[in-house]
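Morning run. Coffee first, then this:
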Amino acid sequence: MNLDYGFLWATFLKALRGLGVTFELTAVALLVGIPFGFVIAIVNIRKTPILHQFFRLFISFMRSTPAVVQIFIAYFGLPKLLIAITDALGMDVNVYDIPPIFYAFTVFSLIEISCLAEVFRAALS
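And here it is:
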């Protein structure tokens, strides 16, 4: 069996084109995750009654479900929720005009918030 170096090189170049989006996604997730993660860590250390329980549930859910499942939930479930909200408020908004990268920003920011909240909580403790 021979290794096809031409195929490997072509695939590498295709993957390299997505590097900019990866860096953008990482930067947005970190910029959103750092301040919110720090606030959640403070709330969890002080054990604020209702918020502490809500954030523990949030962190547990975000860290225990795979990112692919969360992306599917956001990409297919969030538009349905937004349609229900805009219909209830009587707004005429087409939620399908929202670019798909918005859902990726949302999911990865939430994942980053939950991970950084635990990192900050451990560091502060």
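DSSP finds five helices and no strands in the chain. Good start to the day.
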